[in-house]
Amino acid sequence: MREPAEWNAHLPLALGDERRPILEPEPEDLPGEGYRKRQIAHWLYAWGVREFDEMTDLPRALRAELAHTWRISEFSLVQAFPSADGSTKYLYTLHDGRQTEAVYMPYKDRRTICISSMVGCPAGCTFCATGQMRFGRNLTAPEILDQLLAAAYHQGISPREIRNVVLMGMGEPLLNLTNVLKAVRRMIHKQALAMSPRRITLSTVGIPRGIYRLAEEDVGVKLALSLHAPDDETRRRIIPTAHRYAIEEIMDAVRHYYRRTKRRVTLEYTLLRGVNDHLWQAKMLAKHTRGLTAHVNLIPFNPWEGAPHEGSSREQIRRFAAVLEAAGIPVSVRWSRGRDVGAACGQLALRTP
Ligand code: SF4
């Protein structure tokens, strides 16, 4: 891992930098002649350099010209909060002074990053710290992408070594789908991050028109639906914006996505004591998976200061999972990483631990 001084020296942008983001164009539209484009793409995405001057096989004059017109970094200041479990939460300050967060999670066999698609989030889920911040703005495609590149730089690894991306940080990706898809296409592009689309997960609170569009665009990513309650009444209590769409309407869109793409869908379910952890709700949840190949991820609630909820007991989580298993639904309990530094699911809120 790089030292903060070295890291910040390579994120040299001042607030309000008006140079064009070099992460915006597709690799084939990068500046320069044919093979120069490939060289630049390789430096950016395989080596993960943060300054044009480090692109040492480019002529000096070209490097200076690039640095005059283009910027690499989308962040002008970054802080990192390492967790005892090996994860690191990154707090990024964007060019306009707003902030967003990402979480890097190394596992034995893979490196994963959870990135944001917005500053804050308009969904306002009562169990999520981000939801209490309200909506700031959508992130641009370069800002979405650079969360991965900057984290790789800080970790001292190639961006291509991060093979799993989950869009489960701040924001609702399907309400910023144009920028999200642009960033995803760059992750998949052979001359950029060359990632398998199956290792990219988009998590949505349930925006039917976004799900239909995702099915049409068919970029090959995985869809995770943050359902969190199987009945409309409970769901509207914990996801205030859920009154816009009934669960049936959302599930129709998800079934369409499944029929069209044949990809397994994940249902995310944060367990809140006495709110959505009743066994009748587990049975109802099981019914929603009809007509789908679905996997249910049960997420024990990750507390944050002032949260109006408590997590379910381990025993209740076990019972809830058993009901789903008895109905033949694959289920896993996902204990989040980075709880100690406010990096776990639902804890991102630009607060320092
Ligand atoms: S859980 Fe997701 S959709 Fe809900 S407020 Fe948090 S970031 Fe937004």
From TrEMBL:
Keyword 4Fe-4S: yes
Domain of life, source organism: Bacteria
Organism for this UniProt entry: Marinithermus hydrothermalis (strain DSM 14884 / JCM 11576 / T1)
Note: Reaction proceeds by a ping-pong mechanism involving intermediate methylation of a conserved cysteine residue.
Classification via SUPFAM superfamilies: Radical SAM enzymes
Protein name, as recorded: Probable dual-specificity RNA methyltransferase RlmN
One cellular component (GO) term of this entry: cytoplasm
Signal peptide: none
Compartments (UniProt record): Cytoplasm
Function: Specifically methylates position 2 of adenine 2503 in 23S rRNA and position 2 of adenine 37 in tRNAs.
Gene3D superfamilies (alphabetical): 1.10.150.530, Aldolase class I
Co-factor requirement: [4Fe-4S] cluster
Keyword terms of this UniProt record: 4Fe-4S, Cytoplasm, Disulfide bond, Iron, Iron-sulfur, Metal-binding, Methyltransferase, rRNA processing, S-adenosyl-L-methionine, Transferase, tRNA processing
Substrates-to-products reaction catalysed: adenosine(2503) in 23S rRNA + 2 reduced [2Fe-2S]-[ferredoxin] + 2 S-adenosyl-L-methionine = 2-methyladenosine(2503) in 23S rRNA + 5'-deoxyadenosine + L-methionine + 2 oxidized [2Fe-2S]-[ferredoxin] + S-adenosyl-L-homocysteine; adenosine(37) in tRNA + 2 reduced [2Fe-2S]-[ferredoxin] + 2 S-adenosyl-L-methionine = 2-methyladenosine(37) in tRNA + 5'-deoxyadenosine + L-methionine + 2 oxidized [2Fe-2S]-[ferredoxin] + S-adenosyl-L-homocysteine
Enzyme class label: transferase
Coiled coil, from the record: none
Binding-site list for S-adenosyl-L-methionine: 171-172, 203, 226-228, 302
Cofactor note: Binds 1 [4Fe-4S] cluster. The cluster is coordinated with 3 cysteines and an exchangeable S-adenosyl-L-methionine.
UniProt family annotation: Belongs to the radical SAM superfamily. RlmN family.
GO terms, molecular function: 4 iron, 4 sulfur cluster binding; metal ion binding; rRNA (adenine(2503)-C2-)-methyltransferase activity; rRNA binding; tRNA (adenine(37)-C2)-methyltransferase activity; tRNA binding
Any GO BP: rRNA base methylation
Annotated Radical SAM core domain residues: 107-340
InterPro entries: Aldolase_TIM (IPR013785), Methyltransferase_A (IPR040072), RlmN_N (IPR048641), RNA_MTrfase_RlmN (IPR027492), rRNA_lsu_MTrfase_RlmN/Cfr (IPR004383), rSAM (IPR007197), rSAM_sf (IPR058240)
Binding positions ([4Fe-4S] cluster): 121, 125, 128
